Design the sequence.
């Protein structure tokens, strides 16, 4: 069980608690803070004021989105997940990674399964949500193990990485083993508010970590790194739910504009981000591990296409699939549905194999995953 995280100072010397207090310090319950925010018209999205927290220190989605499952519904989903018809590929997936290029490109991206990507932008190398370990579960449970024999990336073969960006603290995005092995070759870590406490506890110096509130930004060389909203939740144990913030990342350079969704249900934030920072040359959108029960906090494939269009994206690279089974659907279903939805409205997809370097402005890869089943 991780200790309670300590929230750091956000933009303009204003802590998340203080920005919450701008909505009025009397409120206690999650319901009342959301009601008040909506009544005052000061939603974090519209006013770009940063995240919202209850007095107890729990972050909330500005529109109140959350998962409400009846007892038994979760177990039903779990049982369905374990009945493993096409829940995992029968054979190891191809991995074509041949090492990172010596010189980072103005815009290129390499996907390593699930949400782990290496983004080259403006000559920098950024790793996003580099979960490269064998299992998403802290306990030896029968689910959450990486697809058979698939080794995403030899960390020791990586050159220096300018920064790691983390979207939230769930195990399938923030993996202690990966972080510890990456740390010697990483320049800086960017996280949403609170998530840096995990890194500090694992021995990474506070000076190497920047914790950002929504709409907060930092510069790395000539690249702007902006934490933008997402509609999700957080927590690694039984008692730390929503004590750290979740985010998407907007990465802006003179050569390219890129968006990384993190984990998120469909919501109004996509349009708000697109209005402020779009159009994007590339969006990396989560499109797997969905279910109607938790649609509020994970996108259906059709939602991913819709969000990409709200963002004013050019090329869509689907993430959050291809490595783990965390929802009761066939492992290829996200891409089959995504292809249909994208073709219907003319959205351009990049479907690389694991480890394949993609140039979003060049020919786009079309990995036929059905060959791998
Ligand atoms: Zn998550």
Sequence:
């Amino acid at each position: 069980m991780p200790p309670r995280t300590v929230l750091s100072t956000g933009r303009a010397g204003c802590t998340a608690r203080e920005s919450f207090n701008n909505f009025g310090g009397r409120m206690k319950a999650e319901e009342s803070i959301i009601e008040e925010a909506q009544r005052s018209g000061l939603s974090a999205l519209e006013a770009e004021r940063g995240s919202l927290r209850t007095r107890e220190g729990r972050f909330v989605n500005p529109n109140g989105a959350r998962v409400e499952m009846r007892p038994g519904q979760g177990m039903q989903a779990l049982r369905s997940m374990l009945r493993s018809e096409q829940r995992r590929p029968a054979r190891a997936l191809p991995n074509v990674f041949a090492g990172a290029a010596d010189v980072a490109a103005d815009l290129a991206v390499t996907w390593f399964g699930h949400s782990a990507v290496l983004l080259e932008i403006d000559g920098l190398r950024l790793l996003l949500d580099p979960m490269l370990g064998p299992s998403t579960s802290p306990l030896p449970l029968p689910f959450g193990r990486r697809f058979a024999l698939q080794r995403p990336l030899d960390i020791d073969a990586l050159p220096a990485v300018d920064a790691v960006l983390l979207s939230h603290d769930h195990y399938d995005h923030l993996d202690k083993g990966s972080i510890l092995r990456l740390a010697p070759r990483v320049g800086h870590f960017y996280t949403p508010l609170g998530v840096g406490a995990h890194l500090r506890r694992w021995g990474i110096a506070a000076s190497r970590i920047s914790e950002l509130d929504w709409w907060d930004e930092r510069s790395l060389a000539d690249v702007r790194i902006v934490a933008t909203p997402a509609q999700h939740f957080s927590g690694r144990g039984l008692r730390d739910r929503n004590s750290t913030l979740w985010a998407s990342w907007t990465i802006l350079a003179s050569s390219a504009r890129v968006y990384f969704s993190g984990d998120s249900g469909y919501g109004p934030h996509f349009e708000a981000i697109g209005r402020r920072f779009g159009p994007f040359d590339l969006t990396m959108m989560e499109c797997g591990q969905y279910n109607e029960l938790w649609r509020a906090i994970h996108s259906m494939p059709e939602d991913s296409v819709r969000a990409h269009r709200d963002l004013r994206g050019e090329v869509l690279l689907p993430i959050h699939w291809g490595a783990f089974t965390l929802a009761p659907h066939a492992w290829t279903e996200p891409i089959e549905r995504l292809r249909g939805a994208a073709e219907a409205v003319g959205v351009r997809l990049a479907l690389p194999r694991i480890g394949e370097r993609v140039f979003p402005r060049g020919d786009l890869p079309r990995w036929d995953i059905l060959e791998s089943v």
User: Anything to note?
Assistant: Residues 93-372 form a domain with the Metallo-beta-lactamase; Chain A fold (CATH 3.60.15.10). The first helix runs from residue 16 to 21.
